[in-house]
Amino acid sequence: MTELKTSRNTPSAPHWTPSTRDNLAPTAEEEQAPSSLLAGLRPSLMRRFRTLPLWALAPVYFVFFAGAYFAGGQLALPDGPLAARLIGTSIFATVMTVVFTVIVVRQRSDAGGALELDRIGHALKTGRVPAEIDVVAWATIVERQHQLLRRALWLNPVVFGLMTPVALSLTITRSPYWGLAAAFFVVMLVVSVVTTPRSLRKNAIIREVLARRSEIDATQDGQPAADPSPGPPVAG
User: Fold this and answer.
1) pLDDT tens per residue, the chain (236 residues)?
2) Which of 173, 214, 226, 234 could be disulfide-bonded to 204 (CB atoms 3.0-4.6 Å)?
């Protein structure tokens, strides 16, 4: 395995030298030539969505939450008054839109912009870190994501595991449409159990890479190395 190489006495030595453990980003040819049309379509659409300007992103959030709330209310209580449902839909969609927009604004600010936040998200999915990055900004986002994933590791099974029998009981006592909610909770439970540990492993790889780069940069600058990822690194 190729090792990291640094020169303590040579000022012109690079701050970081790639190694096979750094999981470098794919080449431009690899990014621009996916193996199939469908393989490249979904990532492209998701990247466009994540990089939308706020004036376009907020209406998308509003429509999504309004549609989900209205459809859920229609299925659960089909005989409920339409006016009350529309008012509740508007309030719910507005609140959720504000919350998610604030979260996006904060994340983009910490990352250094929407495009950089998208690069971080792509790295967390693939386990590959581009060569040119702002280590400090990346470490902030990745560490926050690490904390969320650790919480989701136990919280998601608890929430979805409890909501499933509740939805099943409502299917029997209130409306058969609650069976759709029960099926949704079961699917989310399975997806969470399968994907969260995998995401944590990729996150650990990124944290390890960022920690090594931060240490090398600090050594070259003659300053004590600051570890952006507390805790023992997990080998990739």
Assistant:
1) 444 444 344 333 344 444 434 444 444 434 444 444 444 445 567 778 778 888 999 999 999 999 999 988 877 777 778 888 899 999 999 999 999 999 999 988 888 888 888 888 888 888 888 888 888 889 989 999 999 999 999 999 999 999 999 989 988 888 787 888 889 999 999 999 999 999 999 999 999 999 988 887 777 765 554 454 444 444 44
2) 234
Question: Which token pair is 80?
Answer: 């409920």
Distance CA 101, CA 79 (A): 33
Q: What is the distance between the alpha carbons of residues 166 and 8, in angstroms, rounded to a whole number?
A: 62
SS3 154: helix
The single-letter code of the amino acid at 48 is: R
10 Å Cβ neighbour count for 212?
A: 20
Alpha carbon separation from 18 to 2, 8, 79, 110, 114 (Å, rounded): 9, 17, 63, 25, 26
CA 117 – CA 109 distance, rounded (Å): 9
Asked if 205 and 23 touch (Cβ cutoff 8 Å), the reply is yes
Burial of 85 (0-12, 13-18, 19+ CB in 10 A): middle
**CB-CB neighbours of 54 under 10 Å:** 11
pTM of the predicted protein model: 0.65
